[in-house]
Every structure is written in structure tokens, then in C-alpha cells.
Specification:
Elements (H helix, E strand, L loop, with lengths): L1 E7 L15 H4 L3 H9 L1 E5 L10 H8 L4 H4 L4 H7 L8 E13 L6 E5 L7 H15 L4 E7 L2 E7 L5 E2 L17 E2 L2 H15 L3 H8 L7 E8 L7 H5 L3 E4 L3 H9 L3 E3 L12 H11 L5 E6 L1 H8 L2 H23 L5 E6 L16 E7 L22 E3 L4 H8 L2
Parallel strand pairs: 1-12, 1-13, 2-15, 10-11, 10-12
Antiparallel strand pairs: 2-14, 3-4, 3-6, 3-9, 5-6, 7-8, 13-14
Length: 403
Amino acid sequence: MKYIVIVGDGMADRPLKELGGRTPLQHASTPNMDRLASQSLYGAVRTVPEDMHPGSDVANLSILGYDPRKFYSGRAPLEAASIGVALEEGDVAFRCNLVTLKFNQDKTTAVMEDYSSGHITTEEARELIAEIGARLGSETISFYPGVSYRHLMIWSRGSAQVECVPPHDILGKDINDYLPVGEGEEVLRRLMRDSLDLLEGHPVNKERMRNGKNPGNCVWFWGQGRKPAIPTFREKYGIEGSLISAVDLTRGLGIYAGFTILSVPGMTGYLDTNYRGKADAALASLKETDFVYIHVESPDEAGHSGRWEDKIKAIEDFDRLVVGTVMEGAAALGDCRILLLPDHPTPVELRTHTGDPVPFVLYDSRDIRQNKGARFDEELAKRPDARPFEEGYRLMDFFIKGI
């Protein structure tokens, strides 16, 4: 048996008046996902426990079959694993975004203008992070470059008992209400203030502003945690697997789960990502292993941007180039199962995640269903015969073991 999991990050949404009361998923043309829905067992899964923050880290941990209440220790440690940073005892990893702050005229207040610095290029971002590391790093504070706006700070013997807010949750809001609070807040706030002085006048940012692009003028810390203790997927389910994603946190999850991490040229995590390349690489990996996890970030990024047009395009590209390619290739695999779902909703109107249950379909080549009129959208989870999974991590048990 071959197992394929396809995750459209943030694909679920809420009705929009601009779309006549439909969601982007309902409005988009998705013949391949709809075909899966018409042939599969389907239901609703709560990937984020009600008492936890609805992050992609928690949601994907749950989808992979790990109880977040037991195994979650923070987002940044997962990203550290992805970029090859080994955490020692006492280390606390922080996600370090390059963000755009917009100040008032006398620079007494600022709002979060852009959590991604206009999706700054990796090359530009590396120059900025190198400057931050050289000037603000110390024996206990280290900075590591990642991809685009997503980077890492490691605080040796640091504090994880501090409340930090994801920058994509506070777009357009005064940052003074969302600065780090708790043990160690003074260290983090000082680093953020000092980064402003270093970054605002940096040649990279001057050039970006000349070209009408948002500058990366401040670092923003969040998602902190210590090294987690996660059993491998082989230990849990007795099978080997691969994972493909452009996002460090998902790749980090894969590393802790013991997966082979696949790379594809042109994999960006945004609207221009190499969708088909991901699907082709995933199918090729099944010649060597029995399980593959395909994660596509672009619908989530479009949700955070607040642009429903971009979200529809991301969903349609995902359906045509990822789901369609996988379905075509799956015919040559023999017995296979396909699990398709969002990890969480990222409503365009809210521009951030919610923890609402999401629809899923579970296709089994040995048990083709006949679900007349079924489409893959949020309403699928509300149908009378939809199977509920209130504890999201149990869905993987059902997918692999049928229990």
C-alpha cells in the first residue's frame, strides 16, 4: 500500500461578499479535488485543539499523527532542524521575521505594515541577517538565515516563558500592544529596537524602497521553544516516508519524524512555486518508500495577504498541478490511499489562521465510493454522513491503520 498526504495550507476560508457568499474554495474551479470528494470517504477534522494557537506547526503535527498537547514545544525548534541548527540543552529557538514597520511622522508609534517585507528575496534577506548577526549577536544570541523573510534566532540559556505574537496576526495594528511580554522581554525588545537602527539605512533596504518595495526594517521574534522529543514515523506506524515542502517548519517536522526531505528547483512557498515539480518528486519518491507528505503553502500566503483573487488562483493551481498530477500518477502505484485536506483555515477577511475544523477526503483505490454531488469545499464537512475527528491526530491512525 502506498500512502499520499496532500495538504493545501490555509486553503479553507469563510464566505465572502465579493464572491456572492461563497468561499474561495467554493468559487474556484477544482475538478480534481471534486473528483476525489465524489469517490472517497470524507469528513471534518479538528487539526488544532481548541485550547491551542491555530498555527501551521500545531496543525501539521496533528495531521502527521502526533498529539500536539503531548509533543508540541514551539515552532522555531522545527525550523531550526530544517536549516541544520542543532539545539543544545538550554537553548531556546525563536522565529525571526524580517518585517516592515510603518511609523507615524514623529516615530513615536508604528504599525505592522508587512509580516514578510514584501516577500523579500532570500539573497537580500541574507545580507540583512548577516548584518544583524555581526552587530547584535553575542555569546548567548545567534542569528541564522533562512528563506525569504523567515529566519532564526537562538538564545543560549534563554527564556521560553515569554509571550510573543506572530506578526501575521497583527497586520495594520499598533505594535506597542503586541511586543514580547514576560520573562526575558527586555532582551527581545532591545534586539528589536536595535535592529531598526541597523536596518533602516541598509543599502538593501534603500534599494528596495527606490524600487517601491517594502523594506525589511525590523526583526520580529515569535514561535519560541526548546528541542522537542518526537518519535519517528517508523516507530509509530512501521513505515518509511518522505516529505516535500518549501516551509522550514514543515520540513523540520519531517526531520523529527525521520522522513527523507525532498527538494525541488523553484519551490518558493508562494504563488510562483513549482507545483508540478512537487507532485512529480512525490510520486518518484514512492518507488523507494511507502509514504509521502506534500505540503503547499501558497493558499495560506494568499489568505494572509487578504487577496481573494490570489487565493483562488493558488487553489486552482494546487488542484490542477498538484492534485491532478498525483491522481494521474497514482494509477501506476497499485493499491494506494490519498488523504487531502487543508491544515487550517486562513480566512481572507481575517488575514490570519483560525482553529475551525476543516474538510478532508480519504481516497482508497480498493474502495471507490459514489458520493453524488460531493465537492471538495467547506460544506463537505457539514454533510450528514461526514465523519468527524475531534482529535485531529487520530486521523492519521485511521489513514494508515484503519482504526
